Amino acid sequence: MKNYKYMKKAFIFDLDGVIVDTAKYHYLAWKKLANQLGFEFTKEQNELFKGVSRKRCLEILLDIAKIEATQEDFNRWMIEKNVDYLKFIENMDASEILADVPRVLQFLKDHKIPIGLGSASKNAKPILEKVGLLSYFDAIVDGNNVTKAKPDPEVFLLAANHLGVKAQDCVVFEDAVAGIEAANAANMTSIGIGDANVLSKAQFNFTDFTEISTDFMNDLI
């Protein structure tokens, strides 16, 4: 781990919907499972899954369908969904990166600001590798490292710890309500990426990274 003892700030990014748009692949995988279980899963219902762990997503899916599952079925369906998701993301490349994300990452790297990832995804590293962004990140905390899902702040607090920066000196980019709540609970600066009406609890809001100016970034650091 790099020594950031004297750093004043660190930046932590969510993955899905912030760096890359993998939400569409999650939706396709959940929709496939829903169809196998005999019901339709809509894009509107998929909004409930933003920033939520795979286990919780399946619980919500089964609740929507009013299906009671044995533990054996539950575990099998979680695995099946992930296998399908991995097939969908197999051919991801740099074209999947959301607008201006590389510019912001490069700005932070040029200013020697530590960069972390805080995501519920259990596939964060392979995704970052596929799109060519893995080298930007000094710490990655994902679904493999946490026991509590957002809005619990565990994922962001762990990332701050790995980066060697105090929680209150971290800036978080999130596209989900649960993620914004987690950042706020960790006493971090929260920046909502997406609909400001939905992410109203964020301290700052932008539709996407194209709206984030160099002056704004300089003010943050």
Description of the structure:
This protein is of the alpha/beta class and 221 residues long. The chain folds into two domains: 10-21 and 94-220, HAD superfamily/HAD-like (Rossmann fold, 3-Layer(aba) Sandwich), CATH 3.40.50.1000; 23-89, DNA polymerase, domain 1, CATH 1.10.150. Helix content is 42%, strand content 11%. The protein contains nine helices and six strands; from the N terminus they run βαααααβαβαβαββα. A six-stranded parallel β-sheet has the order 3-2-1-4-5-6. The longest helix has 19 residues, at 71-89.
Keywords:
single chain, DNA polymerase, domain 1, 6-stranded parallel β-sheet
List the helices and strands and how they pair.
Blueprint: E1 10-13, H1 23-36, H2 43-46, H3 54-65, H4 71-89, H5 101-110, E2 115-118, H6 124-130, E3 139-141, H7 154-163, E4 170-174, H8 177-185, E5 189-193, E6 204-206, H9 214-220
Parallel strand pairs: 1-2, 1-4, 2-3, 4-5, 5-6
